[in-house]
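User: Can you write out an input/output pair for a complex, sequences first and structure second?

Assistant: Here is one pair. Inputs:
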Amino acid sequence: MDPEKCCESGCNPCERDPDKEGPIDLYNYIGGEFVCQSGDEWMNVLEPATGLRFARVPLSTSEDVDAAVAAARKAQPAWGALSVDERAVWLDRIADALEERYEDIASLESRDTGKPISLARAVDAKRSVTNFRFFAGLLREQESEIFEMEDSTNFVVHKPVGVGALITPWNLPLYLLSWKVAPAIGMGNSVVCKPSELTPMTADLLMQVIDDVGLPAGVVNLVHGNGGGAGAPLVAHHDVDLVSFTGGTDTGQKVAASAAPSFKKLSLELGGKNASIVFSDCDMETTVSGVVRAGFLNQGQVCLCGSRVLVEDSIYEQFRDRFVDAVESMVVGDPSDEATELGALISSEHLGKVSEYVEVAKKEGGNLLTGGQPSLPSKFEHGNWMAPTVIEGLSPDSRCSTEEIFGPVVTLHRFGSEEEAVAIANNTRYGLAGSVWTSDLERGKRVSESLETGMVWVNTWLHRDLRVPFGGVKDSGVGREGGKWSLGFFSEAMNVCVKHD
Ligand code: NAD
């Protein structure tokens, strides 16, 4: 970075002062150094709960992307030449250093996303550390794959793919970024990360941790910025070999089109419109609390959220009343308060989009059972708030029943038979996840297998074993990550066939 340009733009990564009052300036991390972006455009990062400025994030350009990809390319051969065990040691070091910043991760994530601090601790901070530990363990456990023939032996070798572009959304910022970085570098790739411009804080924290532990320069790089300025040139870059993208389906289409001409290896984790199917033989208490959690965790801003609840006719009224009572008893408020269960939505634009869906639902004949504006102290008057909302009476074909809303809005539907429940659940372009609630486990399994999704839970939700495949079908994505599926995606399997004497 030209020092004069540094001064002009007010950007100086050498003077990062964690105790500085006021908004924090973030920097790109390229070739083992925090650096300024090539231009002088910044974007304000706002706290969703208050609407106040929290930080400034650089809006990087293709010039910054070029520098990051070049740094990653330079670092990859030496990194890829390390043994799997050596790379696993690095993942453990990152996990240990992240764990020391556990509380920082939780508080930054809560301020940056508007989610409750208790959730940021239990889900975001915990999983970010676990992701590095888990993949370190999995790398060490890998067994050699050898296939004997009468006259030859086949050895399968897993080679790094090269330089990876890792692009992540705002709902689970470090959780999802670490889910990609750990297996990608574990398999010997170098990477360029592009976190969401709305929630860049913990990606910056991860770069600090990576810098502190002394990971070889260029193995992990980060370019901040928006989709058009930084994400698009990264995906299109001629020297990027793979793209792992998590985000919206519309963006996924653009990413797929841009990656296709150069045949980049591609994993797409996209949107969802998931059904929770409640049968009359369910355990009512467990089901109500499980389905409420599935509908509203993280203000309904989890791709796996069960935003459509399908309830068997005979228990519909009973379930609906208990469900609405449970929703109304949720504590909405200050994300930093330990007792808070629901925080703010990510941005005023997103709140506008979610609120618009509620208006559409009314026009589509929906009956609003609960919702509106939560009453909050005045310091939150400019935040992005919405009370958890439940709507009944919509046709399963309506827009609100089939499109991804990605907010605290759940629609209730009745069904008369197993076949009808499955038909309603599958009546969407998405195919990510679902849950089935019944005491008949045979039926639970049967219905699960009829759903056009990548994942289904029976009598639970978001219960995750990191070894299992994760991903969607239809417009919810392409490919699988998780456990050995991640290791497979972030490597090229090569077969060596050796003829015996
Ligand atoms: P988004 O698609 O708007 O943005 C995701 C990321 O892509 C951001 O970093 C953004 O800057 C970047 N981006 C935007 N345009 C780009 C382009 N043309 N080229 C490259 N990158 C570009 O999504 P969002 O609003 O941040 O996240 C919400 C969506 O993510 C929801 O649809 C949700 O269902 C989905 N999601 C899916 C999963 C999953 O595992 N399937 C997990 C979390 C979120």
